[in-house]
Amino acid sequence: MYQKNQLLLPDIGLTMNMKKKFSKQIFLLPLLFLFAAESFAGFREMQDQAGRTVQVPDNPQRVVALAPSVTEIIFALEQEKRLAGVTRFSDYPPRAQQWPKVGSYIQLDLEKIVALKPDLCIAVKDGNPIEVVSRLEDFGIPVYAVNPVNLQTVMEAIRNIGNLLRADAQAQFLSAQMEKRMNQIKKLTAEIPHKPGVFFQIGINPIVAVGKDSFLHELILTAGGRNLSEGDIPYPRFSQEQVLALSPEIIIITSMARGKIFQQVKKDWEKWPDMPAVKNGRIHIVDSDVLDRPGPRMVEGLEYLFRLFHPKAAGK
Amino acid sequence: MPDIVKRIAAVSFLLLLILVAAGLLGLSLGSSQSLPTVLEYFLSGGEKDPMLANIIWRIRLPRVILAALAGSVLSLGGLVFQALLRNPLAEPYILGISGGSAIGAILGILMGLARFPGVCLCAFAGSLLTLLLVVVMGSGRAALKKDSLLLSGVMINAFCSSVITFLLSLSQDSRIHNILFWLMGDLSLPDLKQSGVLALLVFPCFVLIFCLSHIMNLLLSGREMARTMGVNTGAVMLVLLICTSLMVSATVSYCGLLGFVGLVMPHLLRMILGPDHRVLVPACILGGGAYMILCDILARTLPEQGEMPTGVITAIIGAPLFIFLLRRSKK
């Protein structure tokens, strides 16, 4: 570098001058580093759950949560003071609805996010469009992605977000609690020999169930059931007769559709009184938010499923 | 001749003013910052707020440019089809050309190709195929030509939408939501580079079509007539059709399906400016751009939360107008 300067400058006197300056700079270098360290102290490198290395602020103050599950995690960690914006269907806890909205998690409103001047966005790998993430990064807004695909990674996501938001203690406590409750269920189900066949219906028209590659599958197994729709397709479609052929002992309907529509679907199944689930009155609705959202409430969903699958064991 | 030059210049200048005004409005309105804030930003010379600068120049500007390009392409596409097929109701969307491009584009997306050139080329292939189908099907019986062309277009359009639904229901792709939104005509999320690529693709088409605009006048008065004037009608039509399909399919692969724009603008402008294509071509380019920018502003600001696809707005405005024009042309 220095050599180059010398070549570029024909005036020797000037180069000499520069040399002096340069040595002075060398002297000042450690100081400079200190200064730089000071100004860069605001950031650290972290690996997110999507495997990307992200420069995140040390102490983020304006976080936009790009999915309802992320919002729930932030509230559960009591870090809502850092929250600058949430997505449209972030309705838990209810006061989360008071935060500014940035579109729905699939249809994010880039302009609104940028207008909130976030110092960090937390995204979910499956769901948030990658285009929006890369546009946000173009604007110099770091995006940390979580990828909660099963119970284990949900707890990991909670710990990661806890680390991000300087709430390690809360995150450890929360994930330990979840783990404890989960192990309790596992212990109980291990003692029960009969695992009822469950048809877990997440879509009504068409009928959609869950395959092996979904965390609902894992929840069903953990709660002590058999997933009748397991297969390689994550969310397979079914016809009515295919469902009848499976003769499910339990039908669980989780849906964006609540109330009336559930009654309708239940009535539709009740046309087939020979089906075990109908015969024994074991068609249930569950709050989809507790099960579909990979957040802290998933353990509640797990316990709820367990009570539905094994009412006797749960009664003890 | 100087008369017509003057007229083209006057019309273009006026519509350019409208386009620029629409563009400025598009920069000023959006889902986050209110109009006064943006005006203040412009008046103060705009150095102080990097966030506002980002929103205006890096989010809204590419979008305004994309909207303008899409509007120009689709209006001009409508104009060309109407002249070539001598049918006032011809339009890329109604003829199924847009639908064909969309099938190609979806196949490209599902194959995981890049937007450019992969998806664009697939869309182009799709549009050429449907164009061929429409022309072959529509040219069977000369007597019924005017209606049968439109009918075959409508059928092909319906066929295309069912193929699209078929493709979407076959795939278990997590990108389906994005594809659906894009299909309804989505202008969100372009960056300057994407808008620039589209501009580079369509500008040569604009120039070429403008150069051929006097021949379009001749074609409108009948192919025989044009032939006697020494025009190689077959070659000219081929060039125009390919050119139009190219720019329409490029637009579809970036913006999805934006219906009825190619109907509204050419008709409106023809009513005001008369049938001379030398005036209508630049008028459609500039006016169509302005119209689409305005539609996109509505799409961005009407819903209280999030955005709606721009294609919804163009169809809501365009479809009633289509019916109105159909009734008028029957009288």
Q: Would you kindly provide a written description of the structure presented here, covering whatever features stand out?
A:
The complex is a heterodimer of chains A (316) and B (331). With 316 residues, chain A is of the alpha/beta class. Chain A has helices at 2-8, 12-40, 68-76, 110-115, 130-138, 151-164, 168-190, 215-222, 240-246, 260-269, 276-279, 288-292, 298-309, 311-315; strands spanning 43-47, 53-57, 63-65, 83-85, 120-124, 143-146, 197-201, 207-208, 226-227, 237-238, 250-255, 283-287. Helix content of chain A is 47%, strand content 15%. In chain A, strands 4-3-5-6 form a four-stranded parallel sheet. In chain A, strands 9-7-11-12 form a four-stranded parallel sheet. In chain A, strands 1-2 form a two-stranded antiparallel ribbon. In chain A, helix 5 (130-138) links the parallel strand 5 and strand 6 (143-146). In chain A, helix 6 runs antiparallel to helix 7 (168-190) and helix 7 (168-190) packs parallel to helix 13 (298-309). Chain A is globular, with a radius of gyration of 27 Å. In chain B, helix 5 (115-138) crosses helix 11 (233-255), helix 8 (192-211) runs antiparallel to helix 11 and helix 12 (261-273) packs across helix 13 (277-301). The longest helix of chain B is centred in the first third of the chain and has 35 residues, at 50-84. Chain B is globular, with a radius of gyration of 20 Å. The mean pLDDT of chain B is 84. Classes of the chains: A alpha/beta (316), B mainly alpha (331). Chain A binds chain B through residues 88, 101, 103-104, 106-107, 109-112, 114-115, 117, 126-127, 129, 131-132, 135, 138-139, 233-235, and chain B through 30-33, 51, 54-55, 58-60, 172, 174, 177-178, 181, 188-189, 191, 305-307.
